[in-house]
Design goal:
This protein is mostly beta strands. The protein has 5 helices and 27 strands. The N and C termini lie far apart (130 Å).
């Protein structure tokens, strides 16, 4: 037993000694080139004579391999240019800095609009250096809030694609508010007035140097006054730097019917040498109609669908505006001044019962009002006057004493149906 134990101990000691000798030999005689290993991990390292220096170099190289050099892009990606006048060209330089320890490469991928151009300075930026991208945008024919983008690509692993954005507001040098001058139901033989304001956004404000009408003959029908706005009158408009009050007076010589014209205001602005203001209106006669069911655009009285056997009563107002303003002050309370006389000339269908009521003077508006009473009798036949064309409608024709409107045609849309049980 003791002999066997001794053999085991001797074997263990021999194995340890042999292993130590082999390990020492491998350390002093490695089966590889130290420099080859160092060059593989850290190829820029020099040759070392001391094995410990070689080992330290390998360890340092390993650490650098874990955190290799890289470029780091720094840029402010948003530029707000504020307010630009329509027609101006905007420009901005985006500065791209390389805060890393490797070369930064940059390229322009695309812009969001053909109206925007982006020019890159250098496409390679050394550590600590910078380059620029010049962005230019054109504002012609555009109004309101404005945004354009430039997409760039870099080799910064944290910012491979970057959007550069310009943002702001495009305004005209000036604009009219409201944009047109409208005269609704301008009474023949009377004057009328409409106003608009020109808000200026240029600094200093543009100047209105003159005006004209597209139709030269229109100057015989209109009078125009232009006056600068005071500061408290234009400050309510955002970004306004000044303005003008435009007052247009229509003379009493326009013929009956619709009219349209364009006022052209001349300015000293390079980008907006003219401001065009459309003028619209309709000249109506001294007589107009109003009341429940009346459609003034089509000149149609809409009675609706009526039941046979039931009496339908309707009322329409005839409004006479022929009384001159200077004569109104002489009219006494309760008095009916001289006005246009009316009488019923014809009714179709003839079984409709139409009567003219008494006339009343309304001093607050200077109008003489006469009522038209229309009754659909209880024994009215089943009929259809509901068509949209005049030939399929009923009609009332009034004869007047006016030289401008000797008769008034009133179209009537209605139908009489059987009684629903």
């Amino acid at each position: 037993m003791k002999k066997n134990l001794l053999v085991i101990l001797v074997s263990i000691v021999a194995a340890v000694v042999v292993g130590w000798l082999i390990a020492r030999y491998r350390i002093t005689h490695p089966p590889y080139s130290e420099q080859a290993l160092i060059d593989c991990i850290t190829p820029s390292f020099p040759t070392f004579s001391n094995p410990m220096d070689s080992l330290n170099a390998v360890l340092e190289g390993s650490q650098k391999y874990k955190n290799p050099p890289r470029p780091v892009l720094s840029v402010e990606p948003l530029y707000n240019f504020g307010v630009l006048q329509n027609g101006e060209v905007g420009k901005h330089q985006f500065v791209l800095q390389n805060k890393g320890d490797a070369d930064l490469t940059v390229s322009v991928e695309e812009t969001s609009c053909k109206c925007t151009a982006a020019n890159l300075g250098n496409d390679t930026v050394k550590p600590g250096d910078s380059t620029v991208i010049d962005v230019t945008w054109k504002t012609a024919d555009y109004m309101g809030d404005y945004t354009q983008k430039v997409l760039i690509r870099t080799n910064d692993p944290e910012m491979t694609m970057v959007e550069l954005e310009v943002r702001g507001k495009i305004v005209a040098d000036a604009r009219a508010m409201p944009s047109e001058l409208t005269f609704t139901n301008l009474t023949h033989g009377y004057t009328a007035q409409a106003q608009t304001q020109i808000a200026c956004y240029k600094n200093p404000p543009l100047e209105i140097t003159g005006y004209e009408f597209l139709n030269p003959e229109a100057k015989n029908n209109f009078d125009l006054q232009i006056s600068p706005l005071k500061e408290d009158e234009y400050q309510s408009e955002p970004d306004a730097t000044g303005g003008y009050q435009i007052t247009l007076n229509v003379k009493d010589n326009l013929p009956l019917g619709p009219f349209s014209e364009t006022l052209v205001l001349k300015t000293n602005s390079q980008f907006q040498p003219e401001i065009k203001v459309p003028i619209y209106g309709t000249v109506v006669g001294n007589i107009s109609l109003a009341g429940p069911g009346w459609n003034d655009e089509s000149k149609t009285w809409i009675l609706g669908i009526l039941e046979s056997g039931r009496v339908g009563k309707k009322v329409l107002w005839v409004l006479d505006r022929s009384i001159k303003a200077e004569d109104r002050k002489n009219i006494k309370s309760g008095e009916i001044p001289p006005h246009i006389k009316l009488e019923i000339e014809s009714v179709n269908p003839d079984w409709l019962q139409v009567e003219l009521g008494e006339s009343t003077y309304l001093p607050e508006s200077g109008v003489v009002r006469t009522l038209i009473h229309l009754t659909v009798p209880a024994d009215a036949p089943i009929c259809d006057y509901w068509g949209h064309v005049q030939e399929k409608m009923g009609t009332i024709i009034l004869k007047t004493s006016s030289e401008d409107e000797k008769s008034i045609l009133i179209n009537i849309r209605f139908a009489v149906t059987t009684k629903q049980e």
